[in-house]
Design a protein that fits this description.
Elements: H1 2-25, E1 33-37, H2 44-60, E2 64-68, H3 75-83, E3 90-95, H4 96-105, H5 113-116, E4 117-133, H6 141-150, E5 156-159, H7 165-177, E6 182-185, H8 189-198, E7 203-207, H9 208-216, E8 220-225, E9 251-259, H10 264-278, H11 281-289, E10 293-294, H12 299-320
Parallel strand pairs: 1-2, 1-3, 5-6, 5-7
Antiparallel strand pairs: 3-9, 4-7, 4-8, 4-9, 4-10
Helix pairs in contact: 2-9, 4-12
Keywords: Signal
Family: Belongs to the UPF0065 (bug) family.
Protein name: Tripartite tricarboxylate transporter substrate binding protein
Length: about 325
């Protein structure tokens, strides 16, 4: 009898101790989720982050709020995400620029993307576009090359920032064409776009999502896209390779990340729900309208992509000579 009472007491104590843990986990999500956007409003990262956030809110009745934290090529926003609690309530829309390239450019970053972040859901990929204002004297990429060869260093191009994949796409184009352009870095895509439209820079090198609105409005004239194949959003615009530079292929990608240590169950839930959105016709259309291509992946596939490109771009950054103090 005494033994039985002891066992029952022990069982009751175990349940009591276990209850707070079960209660603490609860259903996810049970409060608003913050989606950090490491660039200013209006750029490609911002557009896709707000699309995903609004659709998760609409479809699942969650509350997902985009929060812009721009600066330092996107690394400021990433740093904030890395430092956040790994609970699934602080996410970040990362991309190739700040996760694959930034770490090789910025000295003493307090994080390693392959160790301090968890890949949650790949969202889309897109080529880079080389464009001019509609009133520009440059109508083809050949026009730009001819002018740059005639007056080296006088043709300017704006990018969303030093060391971004878009800046490096411009640098790779210079090398491929054997010309010298003058790079003008901005703090995000939108400021670069505005100056290109105003004619303050000769060229804009940009992600398609950032430039598509002005291309559709007829205010921005696309000269070429940097992917191996033409963009389905701009089927009449040639690739850089088609413009005489064979083998040229540069694209960028966007995806949702969480701090390392985020519970696997939370990552799975987020991945499943984002992938459901990417399968919806209206979401596909919205992403395509921005010049991007939706692409779903498992967390494992996305993590592999990150790790592979992280190593590949180390050599590209070193060869470019790009440095940020």
């Amino acid at each position: 009898m005494l033994l039985r009472r002891h066992i029952l007491s022990l069982a009751a104590l175990t349940c009591a101790l276990g209850a707070p843990a079960v209660q603490a986990q609860g259903a996810y999500p049970s409060k608003p989720i913050r989606m950090i956007v490491p660039f200013p409003p209006g750029g490609g990262t911002d557009i896709l982050a707000r699309l995903v956030s609004s659709k998760l809110t609409e479809v699942n009745k969650w509350t997902v709020v985009a929060d812009n934290k721009p600066g330092a090529g996107g690394t400021i926003g990433i740093t904030e995400a890395v430092k956040a609690a790994p609970t699934g309530y602080d996410l970040v829309m990362g991309q190739k620029d700040n996760l694959v390239i930034g770490p090789w450019l910025y000295k003493n970053l307090p994080w390693d993307p392959t160790k301090d972040l968890t890949a949650v859901a790949h969202v889309a990929y897109t080529p880079v576009v080389i464009a001019t204002s509609a009133s520009s004297r440059f109508k083809t990429l050949a026009d730009v090359v001819a002018a740059a060869k005639a007056a080296p260093g006088t043709i300017t191009y704006g990018s969303p920032g030093n060391g971004t994949s878009i800046h490096l796409a411009g640098d790779l184009f210079e090398k491929a064409a054997g010309v010298k352009l003058s790079h003008v870095p901005y703090k995000g895509s939108n400021p670069a776009l505005m100056d290109a439209l105003a004619g303050n820079v000769d060229l804009l090198v940009s992600s398609l999502p950032s430039a598509m609105g002005q291309i559709k409005a007829g205010k921005l004239h696309p000269l070429a896209v940097t992917s191996a194949k033409r963009s389905s959003s701009l089927p009449d615009v040639p690739t850089v390779a088609e413009s005489g530079f064979k083998g040229f292929d540069v694209s960028t990608w966007y995806g949702v990340f969480a701090p390392a240590g985020t519970p696997a169950a939370v990552v799975k839930t987020l991945n499943t729900e984002v992938n459901k959105l990417l399968a919806m016709a209206e979401v596909k259309a919205a992403i395509n309208a921005q010049g991007a291509e939706p692409q779903a992946m498992t967390p494992e596939q996305f993590s592999t992509l990150l790790k592979t490109e992280y190593q590949q771009w180390k050599g590209i950054v070193e060869a470019s000579g790009a440095k940020i103090e």
